[in-house]
Write a structure and sequence with these properties.
By secondary structure, the protein is an alpha/beta fold. The chain has 15 helices and ten strands. The structure holds pyridoxal-5'-phosphate.
């Protein structure tokens, strides 16, 4: 097996410079109600207010900014269930690069529509029977496109790490940080920033209970692959961590926790009712786990990355209705 050169915090710093003036520096919000409920001081890094509605813009813009002239001319191809697609499509539009996006047939309608609106060509596939990576690779070979995967790429994860970098720079060191986990781009990038800026901070990844491949992987020491999990957290329906992301997660992350769909709905309701924020189910993973751990967090300064806010409004209303 070839040895991977893992990205470092320097790559996160370089990414922060590339996205400056293009990505939003998202707000860090607090809530007295939350602090009272948990007996801790919570800081929410709100990537639901990022451009295109999720942190994925950070990694995508960073990766596309590094294209050379030939890559820019031929264009980019990406496969994604939604937010990575939009991140690539918007970044490509801003940088004048043609984009082709491979998306599942059952991707949320709002995400497919937004991807098309950003000027990308959408190619669909059946996520239960077809292999999106193979489709993406084939398009890349046939048309000379550069494939940018959703998480397992040094430029993607370095870009995602800029959110935690901003959080620590704004609020200082934290005792514990909760990060949503799918394929691990956000968590591994956050890990680089955490170990550089708040080395003693406990760092937890949080994934859907229905698909705890990350937890199994961290605890066994090897990447565990699972079937596509059925969960409302559609941004975290990944089947396995990547080689880059797992390399960093294994080294730098304290543990991986899970949240059930019911807990995600409760968190979504809380964000809507108390903080007046629309957060998509996947974006609720971190807070759902923090609430479960409240007894261990007493008196701490706790960070939670809210990863995104893209959800079909009909679906949102249906999930919140009792
Ligand atoms: C992609 C995504 C995640 C998971 O990120 P990974 O880098 O794949 O771990 C979490 N939340 C939202 C909203 C996402 O779009």
């Amino acid at each position: 097996m070839q040895t991977l050169v893992l990205p470092t915090y320097d790559d996160v710093v370089a990414a922060a410079q590339r996205i400056e003036g293009h990505a939003h520096k998202t707000p860090v919000l607090t809530s007295r109600t939350v602090d009272r409920e948990l007996g801790a001081e919570l800081f929410f890094k709100c990537e639901n207010f990022q451009r295109m509605g999720a942190f994925k813009f950070r990694g995508a813009f960073n990766a596309l900014s590094k294209f050379d002239a030939t890559q820019r001319k031929h264009g980019v191809v990406a496969f994604s269930s939604g937010n990575h697609a939009q991140g690539i499509a918007l970044s490509a539009q801003l940088l004048g690069i043609p984009a082709t996006i491979v998306m599942p047939l059952d991707a949320p309608a709002a995400k497919v529509a937004a991807t098309r609106e950003y000027g990308a060509t959408v190619v669909t596939y059946d996520r239960y029977t077809e292999d999106r990576e193979a489709i993406g690779r084939q398009l890349a070979e046939q048309q000379g496109l550069t494939l940018i995967p959703p998480y397992d790429h040094p430029d993607i994860l370095a870009g995602q790490g800029t959110a935690a970098k901003e959080l620590f720079e704004e609020v200082g060191a934290l005792d514990t940080l909760f990060v949503c986990l799918g394929g691990g781009g956000l968590l591994s990038g956050s890990a680089l920033s955490t170990r550089a800026l708040a080395p003693n901070c406990k760092l937890y990844g949080v994934e859907p209970e229905a698909g705890n491949d990350g937890q199994q992987s961290l605890r066994s020491g090897n990447i565990v692959k699972i079937d596509t999990p059925k969960t409302i957290a559609d941004g975290a329906q990944t089947q396995y961590l990547g080689n880059y992301t797992f390399g960093i997660i294994k080294r730098d992350v304290d543990d991986i926790l899970t949240a059930s769909d019911a807990q995600l709905v409760e968190a979504m309701r809380f964000f809507a009712e108390r903080m007046k924020m629309v957060v998509e189910p996947t974006g609720c993973l971190g807070f759902a786990a923090a609430r479960e751990m409240a007894s261990e967090l007493k008196g701490q300064r706790v960070g939670v990355i809210i990863s995104g806010g893209n959800i079909d409004l009909d679906n949102y209303a249906r999930l919140l209705a009792r």
